TrEMBL record:
Membrane topology value: Multi-pass membrane protein
Protein name, as recorded: Phospho-N-acetylmuramoyl-pentapeptide-transferase
Catalytic activity: UDP-N-acetyl-alpha-D-muramoyl-L-alanyl-gamma-D-glutamyl-meso-2,6-diaminopimeloyl-D-alanyl-D-alanine + di-trans,octa-cis-undecaprenyl phosphate = di-trans,octa-cis-undecaprenyl diphospho-N-acetyl-alpha-D-muramoyl-L-alanyl-D-glutamyl-meso-2,6-diaminopimeloyl-D-alanyl-D-alanine + UMP
GO molecular function: metal ion binding; phospho-N-acetylmuramoyl-pentapeptide-transferase activity
Catalytic activity, EC: 2.7.8.13
Positions with a binding annotation for Mg(2+): N190, D263
Enzyme class, spelled out: transferase
Cofactor section: Mg(2+)
Length: 362
């Protein structure tokens, strides 16, 4: 009798979205703090030489040789365990977000593993660009199909939901749009992970925006710009766990980093972020909040395209930036790594603030 009453009250207590968020946040953070140091020691033993430092980075980064990588494995575990414990099991939205985390994490793991085993300083010794883009496309198709099956009955399938109740049917182009959102997010976070602690600091403000969008989506009339999506309540525990895990990882990843998250972490967090945005129908808001990551991704794309075009026209490749991505450009200008991270963090807060304004008043 007492046992039944205990579990009944416990179920009622954890029925609250914010309670799920807080519980998952606390447990995820605790997992990172308690197991972070043992995990780092284990990675040191397994990897021996640590992550090879790419040739395409400033000389200052050579000092980081030997730092273990694949810290993203612990991040994924710290998100999965609290999420499964505290989220409503029957709600599909949480499972879809976790599926994105695991699938993109698996792609990153293969990439990291190949680099660590080969100990090559060339990125090409990981997954080839075509193999990686192909695997990401397969993941996106699966996720987009699942997301499309969870939409409310009043939203037509393969449609984009815009603010103020505007529905834009995309048809088959829905999957192309999903690729840009989910795979684009994954690659943006991946290329942003270039300085100690930077990805986490740029990622957390975006998480704040997604949490506000989640609250708006699960409260009728809270925001006119957000569609009412009661099923999205399954994301409270998942986002809480993600927040706790990345904050806990920063404890070990701040300069000087004791461990890198690797592609397994950066791709997982990016795919997760894009998937949650699609589940909340807040893709455009998420893109604005992640504006600093978008700029970093664009800097690399612009550098590559301009170099190839100028080489084809003049025979000599020219560059827009001293070095790409953008953070390495500022390193070449002489900015200390910590100053770059803090200033990019400030910019991420400003982008996220703009996203919150648009979320409420657009």
């Amino acid at each position: 009798m007492l046992t039944s009453l205990f579990f009944e009250r416990g179920a009622t207590f954890f029925a609250s979205g914010w309670t799920q968020f807080a519980a998952a946040f606390g447990l995820a953070f605790l997992i990172m703090i308690l197991f972070g140091r043992p995990f780092i020691r284990m990675m040191h033993r397994l990897q021996k030489k640590g992550q090879p430092i790419s040739e395409n980075v400033p000389q200052e980064h050579r000092k980081k040789a030997g730092t273990p990588t694949m810290g993203g494995l612990l991040i994924i575990a710290a998100i999965l365990i609290p999420s499964i414990l505290f989220m409503p099991i029957s709600n599909p939205t949480g499972w879809i977000a976790l599926a994105a985390l695991v699938m993109f994490g698996a792609i990153g793991f293969v990439d990291d593993y190949k680099k660590v085993v080969s100990q090559s300083k060339k990125a090409s010794n990981g997954l080839s660009p075509m193999a990686r883009l192909g695997l990401e496309a397969v993941c996106v198709v699966i996720l987009a199909y699942l997301i499309n099956r969870t939409i409310p009955l009043y939203i037509p399938e393969l449609s984009l939901a815009l603010p103020f109740g505007i529905i834009w049917p995309l048809g088959i182009f829905y999957y192309i749009f999903a690729y840009f959102v989910i795979a684009g997010s994954a690659n943006a976070t991946n290329i942003t992970d270039g300085l100690d602690g930077m990805l986490v600091k740029l990622y957390m403000p975006v998480l704040v925006v997604l949490v506000v969008a989640l609250y708006g989506a699960t409260r009728i009339g809270f925001m006119d710009t957000v569609m009412f999506l009661p099923a999205a309540s399954g994301l409270y525990a998942v986002l809480g766990a993600a927040f706790g895990a990345v904050l806990g990882f920063l404890w070990f990843n701040s300069k000087p980093a004791s461990i890198f998250m690797g592609d397994v972490g950066s791709l997982a967090l990016g795919g997760f972020m894009g998937t949650v945005a699609m589940l909340l129908k807040s893709e455009i808001i998420m893109a604005i909040a992640a504006g600093m990551m978008v700029l970093i991704l664009l800097s690399s794309f612009i550098q590559t395209m301009y170099f190839k075009a100028s080489r084809k026209i003049t025979g000599t490749g020219k560059r827009v930036f001293l070095r790409a991505p953008l953070h390495h450009h500022f390193e070449e200008l002489g900015w200390p790594e910590t100053k770059i991270v803090e200033r990019f963090f400030i910019m991420s807060i400003l982008f996220s603030g703009l996203a919150l304004v648009l979320l409420k008043f657009a």
